[in-house]
C-alpha cells in the first residue's frame, strides 16, 4: 500500500473505499465512482472550464487480449474540427486531470478520445504493471483504430496527444502506423528519463536479475515523481485527489520496460516523420528536455515546432501556475487550428 491520504470532511465509509488496495480494478472503479464528484470540484483551473453542452460518453470494451478497457470521449456541440486521441502518462488515468484537458479542447471545437491502458485507471490489469511496452502500444493502436473507423470520425483529421510516458507511446504508435496520423502533440514526452530518476548502473543490473523472478514486485528505488513533476505548491497538494494514480514504487518489470522503451526511442528520433508539436519545461527533472530538443532537430518531419518553457517543470498542464497552463494551452490550440483550417 502507498501512503494513504485522509481527506477532511468525508465519511468513514468513503475513506475506507479510498484506502482499499488499488491493485485490483474493482477497487479502483469503486473509488472513482464514489469520489468523482469531489475530484472534479477541486480548486484547479482545469476544472473551471465551462462544459455545458459537451457530449461525454464512457464505455468498456474487451480487447483482443481479453482485457476490459475503459475509454471516454468528449465531443463539442458542433461537428469537431478534428479528433485528438489522448495518451496518458505513467501511473495516471483519463478520469482526473485528463478530464480537464479534454474539456478544454472540446470547448474549443476538438473532439477528444482517451483510454486507460491495461493496469491503469479503470481498465483491467494489475495496477501499474506493464509486462510489455510493445503490447501496451498494440493495445492503444487496436482501440484507437476501431474508434477512428466510426462513421462520425472517419473523415476527420486525427492527432495523437501524449503526456510524458504517453508521448513515448504516441511515438511508438507512429512508428507502427507511419501514415495513419495527421500529427502529434507531445507534452514533456518520455524520450529519455532524467538521470536523477534512473537507478545507478549497478542497481539496474541487480533489478534486471530480480525482475526475472519477481516481475510484479514494487521494489524500484525512485524519488516521489509527484513532488518532482508539479512546481506550483498549491497544485501539488491537489494531486492527492488523483486517487487512481499509481503512487507506489515502480514494479520491477514496469521499470525495465520504461527504460528499454526510452532507449529505443532515443535511437529512432530520425524516423519520426509526422507533423510535431513538442512542449517541454526547461526545469523538468522527470523527463529530459534535451531529448525533446534532439527530437525536434533530428526528426525527419518537415513540419515541427518546439516550445521550451523557462522555469517550468514536468506537469505543464496540471502543475504550473494558471498563467503558464493557459499559455501552454494557447500554444496547443494555435497549432491545432493551423493544422485543421480548410
From TrEMBL:
Signal peptide extent: none
GO molecular function: lipase activity
Domain Serine aminopeptidase S33 as annotated: residue spans: 79-320
Domain of life: Eukaryota
Cellular component GO terms, alphabetical: membrane
Alphabetized InterPro entries for the sequence: AB_hydrolase_1 (IPR000073), AB_hydrolase_fold (IPR029058), Hydrolase_4 (IPR022742), MAG_DAG_Lipase (IPR051044)
PANTHER family: PHOSPHOLIPASE-RELATED
Name of protein: Serine aminopeptidase S33 domain-containing protein
